[in-house]
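Hi support team,

I submitted a single chain yesterday and got back a structure, but I'm not sure I'm reading the token output correctly. Could someone confirm the output below corresponds to the sequence I sent? I've pasted both exactly as they appear in my results page.

Thanks,
R.
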Amino acid sequence: MQKLSSRLALLALPLCLAAATAQAGKDRPPPLPEEEIRVERAAPPDGNRLYVTDFVFNHMADGRVHVVDGTAASYLGVVMAGYGALTTVSADGKSIYVATTYYPRLYRGQRSDVVEIHDAETLELKAEIDIPPKRAQAASYRSMLVPSADGRFLYVQNATPATSVSVVDLQAKKFVAEIPTPGCWSIQAWDKSDKGNRFSTLCGDGTMLTVTLDDAGQPATRERSQRFFDPDKDPIYVHPEMLGDDRYFVSYLGDVYKVTLAGDKPSFATPWSLLDARDRKANWRPGGMQVTTMHRASGTFYVNMHDKGAEGTHKNPSKEIWAFDVASHKRVARIPSNEAISLVASQGNAPLLYSLNVEKGEIVARKIQKGYPVAKTMSGVGETSLFMEVR
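Hi R., thanks for writing in. Yes, this is the structure output for that exact sequence:
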């Protein structure tokens, strides 16, 4: 009798389980809708979208470009940038250009250099262009990767360590020329020329070499200028600020050199100093990586400055940011700094002056108005972020 009861219980068990399952099914909530995976498009830039180049020094094969809303101090996204990338943004703000290097074994193997073009709204990769494995694996100063004035070509600084410039045709999506520039470094694209696309480069003897390209991107003419600065006594920083056809370079000791890239050849104004007698006594000097910036509408030139300067302090972070009227050469403001190494100013209706502290990854945004009040502060932007660009 006991065995029969046990068998009946076993036969009833599936029925009980089925009943319990049915009840559980009634109590179960409806399934969640399928998640749609899509690419979100960023809002159109308002003139304060920042592109921050991060060298991630502790793992340099994994560089990044951080995209930040400077007005809201919010993070928008990231573009992976490979090893020691050179970066810039197209004049219309629609494309992000990255000239970078990849190795099949992360840090070794056959080197591959490419120019990548990313959509600035989605950050998606739109194109990849092979270039000679010669591009400078160097800090991404503004003059290392430069579009031509008409947006047709992209100029890439090379160093093997011999110096040259690779020319990439952005329309045809191909490399078209390598132009030797022995003893010269950096790329300064001319805004306009009736003789074709042109760029100039600073040379180690204090002169400037200007190269004119034909319609195919091949070098048509080369011309060396007169000497306009003494690199042995007072070198100049390679990235200038632009105001129309004028380029403003600052020297290690605080002189400003205006170079006009127009007409048949570059012209050079008499340099002027950022310093008065009291400043010189305190050894104030420019310092940092992206040392200067320009607010073009007001003609205001900003410079990272530190006191107690000496040989080798040209990359020191700033103690103050000095503002100068470029027309009168007069200092118009001394602004507290967050020990910034890099500066950039936006140019829109609500312009901001951004200063970047590399150790904290901190970006302070100040309103470009009397007193320069702080508008926003954002920390933790990257690991070793060095440069900023704004569109």
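A quick pointer for reading it: The first strand starts at residue 49 and ends at 54. Let us know if anything else looks off.

Best,
Support desk
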